[in-house]
Amino acid sequence: MNKPRTIRVIGLFAAVALVSYALYRSGEMPQWSAGKVNDAIVLSGNIEAHESVLSFKGVQSRVIQLPFDEGKWVKQGSVVAVVDSQDLQQQVVIADATVTVQKRQLDATAQSMTAARKTIDADRAEVLQRKLDLQRSQALQKQGFVSTAALDSAAIALTQANAVLARDEALEQVARGNLKVAQAGSHNAEQSARLSRIVAGYATLSAPFDGVILARQAELGEVVAPGTPIVTLADLDHVWLRAYLNEKDIGRVKLGQAAVLTTDTFPTKKFVGRISFISSQAEYTPKSVETHAERVTLVYRIKIDIDNPDHVFLPGMPVDAKIIPVAAKQG
Q: The whole model's pTM is what?
């Protein structure tokens, strides 16, 4: 064997050993343990929020108010847009006038009904009186004090009283029917007035929840049709992180599992979220990923819910999430 070469090899190994020992002592040399790796699943994604596109319902008119610009915060119930509603307000006035007319007609019909009932009461009293008169006449005739002509007159008077009672009872039935029609008309007028107020209310667009105006799709003076997008409102109190989980990690997470979130905006803070959705179907990595190798990898979309009372997280913000797998927790 070539001794000089052997000496050089031994010296080289010795030098490597000394350098490795020095690095180990200084803490700069990486250390591995057999089978030990970082078990945390680290995902990156973007914040999304519940967005509601607000539009006018059942109204086609000109926009006359847009009090908030994009990026402005609004409270639930705040007016975010108004269209011209003069014609709708006039319909409300007409409907209210119709209600007044129908109520007066109902009152008059009710009074007629009351009068008809009183007339029938009088007719029944008259019939009763004529019956008594006929009975007296019949008794007196038997005693010879009343002529046959007087008895016939008493009988005719009873017949006439019964006829008047029958006529007035028929008129009372007509009045009863008129009263039902008047009641229906009054009810219909009230409902029409209510509907006109509802339609007039469509001219005002209010925020259904606290949020921020993400987009304003209409401008002052523009004539908008029903369903035309006016503003887009985002709920920032409750947001979520959209991320994608590798197929090999799908069995290592579960719904309700906690995740630690970090963002470059607040590098020293950590936030906690919980997995609220795991897709049941795999999909290819979104095309925004640059490399073809990553683009064809199967992944599962997940959502991590985040309480956001201070509005730290905004839509589109990139966020990293660290999840401790279920297996690691159980181990």
A: 0.64
